[in-house]
Structure formats: C-alpha cells, structure tokens
Amino acid sequence: MKSNIAFKLMSTTAAIVGIAFVPDTKACNLSRVAGPFLASRILAPAPVLESAVDLAMSPTARLERQELRDGQPEVIGMWLVNLYDGTTGQLLDRAIQQFYGDGNEMMNSSAFPPATENVCFGVWRATGPGAFKLRHIGWNFDANGSFLGSVRLSATITVDRRGDTYVGSFVYDVLDPSGNLVPGSTILGTLKGNRFKPD
What we know:
This protein is of the alpha+beta class. The protein has 4 helices and 8 strands; from the N terminus they run ααααββββββββ. The longest helix is centred in the first third of the chain and has 19 residues. The N and C termini lie far apart (about 75 Å).
C-alpha cells in the first residue's frame, strides 16, 4: 500500500518536473518561450507598460497628464468662475466649473434658474503650457419649460504658474431649435477662475 502511494507521488513529481523543463511549447501561443525555466517565465508578472488609468484616458487627457508631469500648470479640478462682458466689464455670470481628467467639462451657472437649464457640458484640450481651449453647450428653455434651442460657449484660458487662478476670453452664442445662430445674441467677454480647494 505504502509502495503504491510512494510510486504515485514519484510519478506525479516526475510529471510536474517534466512539464516545468519542457524545452518548447505551443500552449497559449507561447511557442517562442523556450528553455528550462518556462514555468517561472509563465508565472512571472508581465512588465507594466502603461497603467489601466493611462490606457483609459483620451489623448487630450494624456497630454494634460504629461504637462502635469513636466511641472506645468493644470486645469483639472473645480473652479469658481466669473464671466464679464468684454465691452462694459459688467459681471454676466458666476459659475461652478469642473474640468475632468478625461477631457470633459461641466459648468453650473447662477445667471439662469435651474428650470431654464443652468448646466452646460463641454470638452477641453491643452494647447500649450498652461493654455487650454474649451467648448461647451447647454439646452435653453423659457420660464414655462418651452424648448428654445441651445447656448454655446467657446473659450481660451491660461492657468497661472501656481495653478490657482486662470484668465481667458470667451464667445457666447444662442442657437434656435434648428441650430441657427440667433441674430444679436453673440457676446464677447472675459472670464476669471479661482480654484476651489478642499482646504
């Protein structure tokens, strides 16, 4: 009985050793892997070329991440923003703005009641060290909830070297339900942002 168990153990051990020292194999398309340490090579962790976060990021976000690595100002994060009329300097809007690392942006405006749709969504990209281009759009309704079309804002901004403030200029347009520019609706202005921090 004991000799049978010992024989089985020796056979199993020999089989395992034989597998580990196979000089070449076709399994899992690993035909190029050869040598006596095949098992250790298969079980060794693969080198990390890019993190899962890097692979999921858009090219825009990768550029922004690279700028951050290079010590350049970043725009990703939350901002409190004032928008001014470019001619009169009058304050037109105060907004909460969020720039996301994937190249998306969102703005919550105080100039319009929520019922008329005061949230816009946008996309951004880096154009140089500390410089960014933004384009966003939001639906437009009257006080009764009737659809009026959309609003569109395009802006260029520059973040200061500390990354705490930004300044820029914008073009604001109102579009009718068919997507046509409403005559006389265009506003040229400036904007100033202050980073909203956790402390």
